[in-house]
Amino acid sequence: MTKKSSPKVLLLGGTSETAPLSMKIASVGCRVLVSTATDEPLPVGEHPGVGCRFGRLGLAEMKNLLVAEGVFALVDATHPYASEVHQTARHACNETGLPYLRFQRPESQVQEVGWLFAENHQEAALLACETGRPILLTTGSRNLRPYVQEASRNEIPLYARILKHDESITASNDAGLEKSQRIFGRGPFTYEDNVALIRRYRIGVVVSKESGRAGGINEKWRAARDEGCTFVVVKRPLVEQGNSFGCMDDLVRELLQLIGGWLPFQ
Known about the structure:
Radius of gyration: 20 Å
Structural class: alpha/beta
Number of helices: 9
Mean pLDDT: 90
Strand order of the largest sheet: 3-2-1-4-5-12
């Protein structure tokens, strides 16, 4: 079987798992097209069978891409909080009759005493402002508005660590986050990075998503705890869990079963 006839997988990426997962899939004989929402540089794996594209996909665009690329299956490895992408991908697969598999990043498992959980960003903003201490957001550039509004209402210093990217800057402008409140950076961030930031801005509250070990929550939590900060965690959104995998090897095994006789060694 030639490389050209190998089954092709569309991998929706954008997280730290993108490269290792694309490599695992490519290593079993599949071609992999990695799709990310933005042109922000991201390792996708150095393998001749791995290609990439960028640009946000609505339902119509995703269906067109699946058909145009002759994709056999879609693997969704986007961020645990990317609910809209998860739904769009499932719908696109349902309407094209293609298999949908999702890699679900495991939660951190630490969840120590001292975490304050919030159901959503509005609730997290209220919790963060209760102490009256300066707030550091590590939740990205989306959903900034409730924090900006609550912090402004309570006259509490607020800072957000975001990517230095046009989309992030636009989102910050739209939410009313001043330039002086923006801290540009791209993870992964170490414990020392987080401690330095907390000390520099005299932070008293750190807000995080439950982004799992791979998302650096352990380093944020340890830094917050050691610096005497309140730690607010926005819970993961409830999403459909069908065909989800927390282990990459399990996902690849399922993919191989779906591909069946396509591969030369089966």
